[in-house]
Amino acid sequence: MSSSSTLVESSAVLNDQAESSSHSFDNTTSASPWGKSAKATSQSNQAVSFKDVMSEQLASQLQVEENIKFVQEDYQPDTIETEPPDLTEGDIASGSSEDTSNDALLAQMLQAEMDKEYNKYIAKQERQVNKNSKVKLSFTNYRTDEMFVSEEDDDEDLYSSSDEDIGSGQGADPSQNILEIKNDKGYVIFGKEVVTKHDSELCGRRNTARLEDGFPLQFRTGDATGMDIQLNNKIYNSLKKHAFSEQRRSHRLHEDKEHYTAEHAVDERTRLILHRLVDRGIIASVNGVISIGKEAVVIHADGGDIAASDLPPVKNPSVRKVSCLQIPKECAIKIYKTTLNEFRSRDKYIKDDYRFKDRFKKLNPRKIIHMWAEKEMHNLLRMHECGIDCPEVILLRKHVLVMSFIGHNQQPAPKLKQAILSSSQKKLAYEQVVNMMKKLYHECRLVHSDLSEFNLLWHDGKVWMIDVSQSVEPSHPHGLEFLLRDCTNISKFFNNLGVPAVLSSMELFNEVSGLNIATENEATFLSTIETLEKSSEEHSHQGRNKSSQILEQSAH
Ligand code: ADP
Ligand code: MN
After folding, report:
1. Which reaction is catalysed here (predicted)?
2. Helix (H) or strand (E) holding 291
3. pLDDT, position 144
4. Model confidence over 456-481: pLDDT tens digits?
């Protein structure tokens, strides 16, 4: 399904480009190796974009005029006479090279034309062979001038748009086609072989300048355009091909990702769970999506009117737990994605957590996702018990966590990042966050580990903490490092908000943890933290209490 939509999209892109560069295509078809009709001449005048004319207008114009004169006088007066005056410096310019005899040039021109025809033929064969095949054969080795022909193919493929090989470099932008077509006059190759220094310089600079507008937006071309760098044609063209094929690749990846989100986050199993929740009256209706994150999708739901005490008994309380007596009117359902890719990088949060350590080794990936949801539930329950403002857990079913909704009328509370606060509210928010962190650390024995203005909501005049699936105990082998990172985020955010007397990240760390590490030097601060973590870990074989004790002792 995803691949077919990719094809549709890419052929649409091809069509687009076909339209916008239709002039240049006319040019290619009407180009005769041996000269041009008056009609073709006028068309090729049209094909020059304004930008092309404007850039280096004078230099190229002079050079071109000289070249034409040179060719007309010395070489092929009959055929060249009809040549349009819009040749660019790269075309026949090199004809002015003095050490090349007339006959040799003429022969090279003829050879070039024959090569071009031959290469065109090879390209056609290649396309025919590869037409509907997933495995593509390349005839590149049979070509006499690989680069030249492949670019010409690009032009043709733009118009045949039926070609499905979207990854092979077609689809360069129209202005680039114009350049290629101007080359398509039988002079290019000989031009390439006998290029004067001046021509290559001009052409190189122009290529560099084109980095600015000829490439996809996302493609980083660096600062080359600000310097006097000359890119030769071959490098420019292959860079360009690479840029566009990268762009298409990233589009495809992106599309796959979205496809996954829509189709797989709420897959059959998830849908069944949601249906059951509605059937049992726990949820009245499932509404819109609140957030699509990397690991989870959050959906708004209306709470059902069943009393929590009426819920059916639970066989395994750790898998399904209700912390409130009445199901709230508005609920948030967090559905952990059953695709694993994003979770791999987060393994460290769970596999070193003593609470899950032993189970982690035995579980299959799907169960590990369930564990993430379970971990968030446990952490939320702990926080709730300690009186930290956070969503209330309603129930957990496999990878689906139902909790109370922070917000009003389906409108989720703003993240601190987005909330518009008065300066007194900002100060209040800061104080609340610091207190929350302390409570979390000392009473819940947790370090949030992903604390920032994105995981703090502003609701009913106070701060609410969310997203605690990755939260760990302070005795986790990296717990203190996670805490320092949280502190850094918080200090930075409130500092930028302009809140007065914001503690530095190290001061906040000491304030939250009760440790008293010297704050003069960040590097020594961090190494002290790491040493503490190590000694706490060394004692962890004596049980978690011992390792917590180490931290507590250090705090006094
Ligand atoms: P993620 O791992 O995707 O960041 P979060 O738990 O942070 O998952 O949820 C993503 C977003 O969904 C939050 O930033 C918040 O806007 C919204 N959200 C999550 N839980 C709730 C909730 N209980 N009430 C209201 N909005 C919520
Ligand atoms: Mn989040």
Report:
1. L-threonyl-[protein] + ATP = O-phospho-L-threonyl-[protein] + ADP + H(+); L-seryl-[protein] + ATP = O-phospho-L-seryl-[protein] + ADP + H(+)
2. strand 283-292
3. 64
4. 999 999 999 999 999 999 999 999 99
Separation between Cα atoms, residue 99 and residue 334, nearest integer Å: 76
Q: Catalytic pick from 86, 450, 467, 486? A: 450
Q: What share of the chain is helix, strand, coil (3-state, %, to 5)?
A: 60, 10, 35
Active site residue 450: yes
Q: Which amino acid is at 120?
A: K
Structure-token pair, residue 444: 């819940």
CA–CA dist 511, 490 (Å, integer): 13
Report the chain's C-alpha Rg in angstroms.
34
Phi, psi of 449 (to 5 degrees): 75, -5
Decide whether any atom of ligand 1 lies within 6 Å of the 79 Cβ: no
| Pocket flag, ligand 1, residue 455 (CB < 6 Å) | yes
String of DSSP letters for 337-375: -S--HHHHTTHHHHHT-HHHHHHHHH--HHHHHHHHHHH
The phi, psi pair for 129, rounded to 5°, reads -60, -40
Spacing, Cα 335 to ligand 1 middle (Å):
11
Q: What is the number of the ligand closest to the CA of 261?
A: 1
What is the DSSP pairing of strand 393-397 with strand 400-404? antiparallel
Please report which confidence band the pLDDT of residue 104 belongs to, taking 50, 70 and 90 as the band edges.
Answer: low
| 506 CB-contact burial (10 Å; exposed 0-12 / middle 13-18 / buried 19+) | buried
> Which residue has its alpha carbon closest to ligand 1 atom 7?
467
Alpha helices in 21-145, H assignment, sequence order: 22-30, 38-47, 50-54, 57-74, 77-80, 102-130
Tokens 């066989």, residue located: 315
Range of weakest confidence among 78-82, 253-257, 360-364, 548-552: 78-82
Per-residue pLDDT of 56-80, as tens digits, reads: 566 666 666 666 665 555 444 343 3
